[in-house]
Amino acid sequence: MADGGDALRSLLRAANTLLQQRRYHAALAVLKGFRNGAVYGAKVRAPHALVMTFLFKSGSLREKLKSIAQATYTHSRNLAYFVFTYKGLMALQARLQGKKIPFHSFFAACIGGWLVFGDNNPINSQIIMYLLSRILFGLSRLAVEKGYIPQPKQDPFPLVAAVIWGTVLWLFEYHQQTLQPSLQSSMTYLYDDSDVWHDVSDFLIYNKRTESK
Question: Mind naming one GO cellular-component term on file for this protein (predicted)?
Fold first, then answer.
């Protein structure tokens, strides 16, 4: 037992020494990026998949758990692959050109996005839409910061909120098929299902009454 403990401590010391070597920093950063991508993807997707699956999907408990596990694995894997690809290309470009420039980030992320998130599936679609909304806000703020558009005299957020909600409810009411499936499910629950009830049970306690056979 003592020999095993000594060997483990020696291995840990060797690993810690390796991690402190600056010449391996770029490669190690790529590996840790892969680890962080996998962990973050699982942390973000697991609770979301859990809620959406049990709230909207039918099927047995086994089927629901399998769906949650699959969604969590896909999100975790894709984010890990993307971070690995992005950081690897960033390190390669910096090594080839001797310095880091802004275009490196755009190019590396484009390649990673094409390779990892290019498949049009529900998980990737949600991630891209999430990023798109943040990009639009970020570019708007950058345009004001750089002076490309004037600083608004009043906070534009109330107008943005009004237009966005007006547009999404119009699409839901008249062009529902254009919306992402999970958004359709959420809005059906909020706006359509609230129009239907039979008694107190499915008015206050349940969303829909289970018909007895």
Answer: peroxisomal membrane
- Render each residue's pLDDT in the chain as its tens digit; 213 residues: 556 677 888 888 888 888 888 888 888 899 999 999 999 999 999 999 998 888 888 889 999 999 999 999 999 999 999 999 999 999 999 999 989 999 999 999 999 999 999 999 989 999 999 999 999 999 999 999 999 999 999 999 999 999 999 999 999 999 999 998 889 988 998 999 898 888 888 888 888 876 644
Q: Which class for 72: exposed (0-12), middle (13-18), buried (19 or more C-beta within 10 A)? A: buried
The answer to whether the CB of 77 falls within 8 A of the CB of 38 is: yes
**How crowded is the C-beta side of 189, counted as CA atoms within 13 Å?**
12
Shortest CA distance to 128 belongs to which of 87, 162, 82? 82
CB 86, CB 108: distance < 8 Å: yes
Give the DSSP letter of residue 22. Answer: G
The label of the residue with tokens 């703020």 reads 141
Burial class (CB in 10 A: 0-12, 13-18, 19+), 138: exposed
Angle between helices 61-97 and 122-146 (to 10 degrees): 40
